[in-house]
Amino acid sequence: MTKKVMDYKQPSLKGTLTVPGDKSISHRSIMFGAIAEGTTTVSGFLLGEDCLSTIDCFKKLGVDIQVDGTNVTVNSKGIDAWEEPKEVLYTGNSGTTTRLMMGLLSGTNLHTVMTGDASIGKRPMRRVADPLRQMGAKIAGRENGQYTPLAIQGTQLEAMDYTMPVASAQVKSAILLAGLRANGTTIVREKEVSRDHTERMLRQFGAKVDVVDGVVSFEGGQKLTATHVNVPGDISSAAFFLVAGAIAPKSEIVLENVGVNETRAGIIDVLQQMGANLEVKSDGEAAEPTATLTIRTSQLQATTIEGALIPTLIDEVPILALLATQANGKTIIRDAEELKVKETDRITAVVDELKKLGANIEATDDGMIIEGPTRLHGGKLRTYGDHRIGMMAAVAALITDGAVEIDDAECIAVSYPTFFEHVDAVLK
Ligand code: S3P
């Protein structure tokens, strides 16, 4: 763990950035490329540690993957040709890798063992293991499959009709990927719609997926056809610069080629609700819609963030909490208990760390309440090894009176390895 002291002295921020590729889409591009027979090419791939963990797992399954900068080539003989790995599959800090691979591996004829870092070892896996078991999957792990290491004995699966108890794209995607190998039609019912990158990419690889009113239906046994995947910039990474540009004095930041899929873009709604000076210029829609986002400093009003909006911005709550410290009035974030099972408990982490900077913020059972505006001061913050807490602290440092120190700057490489270069590029 490397400490980092950030003493930015309240700069203006100006410039144009292209944020790195979307983490969710990058993971899926490797997985889908590995399922399909033939050569899949990927551009704009995120070279973050989480996505590199996914590549590493598929290499251990015998898939040929070549990385050349942000271009990746996946040469696969198809899912039936995956080899039984002699080693444990190591998923690092990545919940998406762990959970989606549980779904995928359950329907192969392979025995695999998967484990990750200390954070992964504390994250609930029965939310995936239990529905997969209903499809016939054989999954063993600590506390009856709740925690890694997990052992999976692949087997023939049967389709099922599943109503999601929580809004989670990882759970939905694991079931759909298992459904690819199952007999019959797999149905997943969502009360609140979670990100739909899996459904979109299944179509991009030639599969047929129906989605009507939050009900996803997917016939098993479909073949995927290798293709090209162009990964847009990650709105969850852009979020840090959207907030920085909104709260730093006299700032203007342009973010190009940002993915604005409506199941992910809740932060745009919230910024608009709060009165931010944000321009959204659509760049069109391929497999995923993209836009150029321009943010300028403005006066902000408090808001309430709740209900169906939460899954569309779940990873942005830490940075939105910082934003709320600069808005007039009381911001309420509720219906967000899922934050407790992210890379760390993000309700506790955000509240405890922002308090150290003088924020008026309290935790609730399912979110937090923030009263603003508050002039923040410096302090020594913990990241809890969580990339998004580390970046929240760094953006806070841009507006504090005095320096902010974080205990672990390296964790940010999980999703945004060039983050500090991008901060330096917009400092004026
Ligand atoms: C992701 C889904 C979300 C999100 C995570 C990535 C995905 O998790 O928080 O960063 O790629 O499907 P949940 O499915 O647990 O909500």
TrEMBL record:
Which class of enzymes does this protein belong to? transferase
What residues bind 3-phosphoshikimate, as annotated?
Answer: K23, S24, R28, S168, Q170, D315, K342
Its taxonomic placement starts with: Bacteria, Bacillati, Bacillota, Bacilli, Bacillales
Does Nucleotidyltransferase appear among the keywords? no
Fetch the Gene3D superfamilies from UniProt: Enolpyruvate transferase domain
Residue ranges of the Enolpyruvate transferase domain?
A: 11-422
| Localisation | Cytoplasm
**Keyword Repressor: yes or no?**
no
Q: Which GO MF term does the entry hold, naming one? A: 3-phosphoshikimate 1-carboxyvinyltransferase activity
Described by its record, this protein's role is as follows: Catalyzes the transfer of the enolpyruvyl moiety of phosphoenolpyruvate (PEP) to the 5-hydroxyl of shikimate-3-phosphate (S3P) to produce enolpyruvyl shikimate-3-phosphate and inorganic phosphate.
Listed GO CC annotations: cytoplasm
Binding partners and assembly? Monomer.
- Please identify the protein, giving its name as recorded: 3-phosphoshikimate 1-carboxyvinyltransferase
So where's the catalytic machinery, residue-wise?
A: D315 (proton acceptor)
Q: Alphabetically, which GO biological process terms does the record hold?
A: amino acid biosynthetic process; aromatic amino acid family biosynthetic process; chorismate biosynthetic process
